[in-house]
Design goal:
The chain has 462 residues and is of the alpha+beta class. The chain has a four-stranded antiparallel beta sheet, with no helix packed on it. Strands 2-3-4-5 form a four-stranded antiparallel beta sheet, with no helix packed on it. A four-stranded antiparallel beta sheet has the order 6-7-8-9, with no helix packed on it. Helix 2 packs antiparallel against helix 3. The longest helix has 55 residues. It is globular, with a radius of gyration of 32 Å. About 9% of the residues have low confidence.
């Protein structure tokens, strides 16, 4: 028994040592775990801080991929091509006509805006004044109603930059920008819509989320109202030429239209829902108004275009009605522009542009491979006689024969209904001028066609 007690006494130190070692090991494991957890928390905190900084960063994280170009040297010719405006060294992104019908403004990725004089479009050389867009480039441009300023949407800054009009250039007579100012940034998303009301009371910017900002036109950029479109994503937005409405389309199949109202004293009142264009079955890529907002046209992912009668009493609940509709060449992304007089509209898809008659709904002309890169902008001049497009570094100016014919038809109708002798004489003069212009264009078109036919027949003969 004594021997057993001795053996147990001898084993006690060994057990104590083992227990002590185990405790030390456990303590080390716990310390490592705490250290690792703390380090992980610090890493997560650092990551969160970095992400918050990225979110506040106004510049794009990734530049837009360059569009695919047609292989080889690109040339475009068509019997209705009036001229090509050359001067930009980068892709032209936006264009707009001045309200006095004298100038065209174009903005490009070369960080410039050019203002062209329309009076020399028939000449071989085309005069323009270049305005630099410092540290950024513009994606769209709009003239002010009084033609004393223009605004651009900045690609990196995601905001409006205002260029005030100053002195005249002696060589061209075109006004030159003298002062510039940036409005406060409201979103890091791309600007998908830019506009100024024709009464000069407000401006609009729409972003690629669901937000639209309505600004006053005074220096400093005060926000009058914000609109949540509930579109999930805005695709396109515009101010109507009459200056009353803001329209927006996006992921949902409707075009939403709001009225911007002011008091009799000229103070901002409110932005209220006016009406919607309902009928498409998928998101609406683009839409446009005619000059008095009595007509609208829209193009959709569902592969169709629709022409609408918007001359309605929406205050009494009257809805826009469908006048006509048709199929697009594909359901690919596209844009649409309507002639101010409502006579025609143009749809651009990829590299091609189609010209439609609003009266018949028929495709009257198709211009293929107009630009070396996909079309970025289309617009009609105020007289509805020219269709202008951008897509590469050149601007194409095309004759709108549909517009000429519609104008001629309208003048002839007025001549039959008017009772005033003096007005009849003026109408007759206008009819003759329009007929002569149309004959000149059609004659040139026929001459070019005959020339090509002769060339083809010679080649076949060889």
């Amino acid at each position: 028994m004594a021997d057993n007690v001795a053996e147990e006494s001898a084993g006690l130190p060994a057990l104590a040592v083992t227990a002590a070692v185990g405790a030390v090991v456990l303590l080390l494991v716990l310390l490592c775990g705490v250290g690792q957890g703390k380090g992980q928390q610090e890493e997560e905190k650092t990551a969160e801080e970095k992400n918050s900084k990225v979110k506040k960063q106004p510049r794009k994280a990734k530049p837009k991929p360059a569009p695919k170009q047609r292989p080889g040297a690109h040339t475009f010719s068509h019997t209705l091509l009036s001229t090509s405006l050359k001067g930009h060294s980068g892709r032209v992104m936006g264009l707009d006509f001045s309200n006095n019908a004298k100038y065209l403004a174009t903005c490009a990725e070369d960080r410039t805006v050019r203002i062209w004089s329309l009076k020399d479009w028939k000449d071989k050389e085309h005069k323009s004044v270049q305005v630099n867009v410092e540290l950024d480039h513009a994606t769209s441009v709009k003239f002010s109603p009084d033609n004393r300023a223009f605004i651009v949407a900045l690609y990196n800054g995601n905001t409006i930059r205002v260029f005030r009009i100053g002195r005249k250039d002696e060589g061209t007579g075109i006004h030159v920008s003298a002062l510039e100012q940036d409005f406060p940034q409201k979103s890091i998303k791309d600007i998908v819509g830019l506009g100024i009301s024709s009464n000069g009371k407000f401006m609009m910017t729409a972003f690629a989320d669901t937000s639209i900002y309505v600004w006053n036109t005074k220096p400093g950029g005060e926000v009058l109202a914000t609109i949540d479109t509930h579109q999930m994503e805005n695709y396109h937005a515009a101010v109507s030429p009459c200056g009353r409405f803001i329209g927006c389309s996006g992921f949902t199949p409707d075009v939403k239209v709001w009225e911007v109202s002011f008091t009799k004293g000229g103070e901002f009142n409110q932005v209220s829902r006016a009406f919607e264009l309902k009928g498409h079955s998928s998101g609406v890529y683009s839409f446009d108004f005619n000059v008095d907002s009595s007509r609208m046209v829209s193009v959709s992912k569902d592969g169709t275009w629709r022409l609408w009668d918007t001359n309605i009493e929406y205050e009494k609940g009257q809805e826009a009605s469908l006048l006509s509709k048709g199929d697009l060449h594909s359901s690919a992304q596209c844009m649409v522009a309507m002639a101010p007089n409502g006579s025609s509209f143009a749809i651009a898809q990829g590299y091609d542009i189609s010209l439609y008659s609003s009266e018949t709904g028929q495709e009257e002309e198709k211009f293929s491979d107009v630009h070396a890169e996909p079309v970025t902008a289309v617009a009609f001049d105020l007289g509805s006689k020219y269709l202008v497009s951008a897509g590469d570094k050149h601007v194409r100016v095309l004759h709108n024969t549909v517009g000429y014919r519609a104008l001629l038809h309208d003048l002839q109708h007025k001549l039959k209904t008017t009772q005033s002798t003096a007005y009849k004489e003026r109408l007759k003069e206008q009819i003759k001028e329009t007929e002569d212009a149309l004959k000149s264009i059609v004659g040139e078109e026929k001459g070019e066609k005959d020339k090509k036919d002769k060339e083809n027949s010679k080649k076949k003969g060889k």
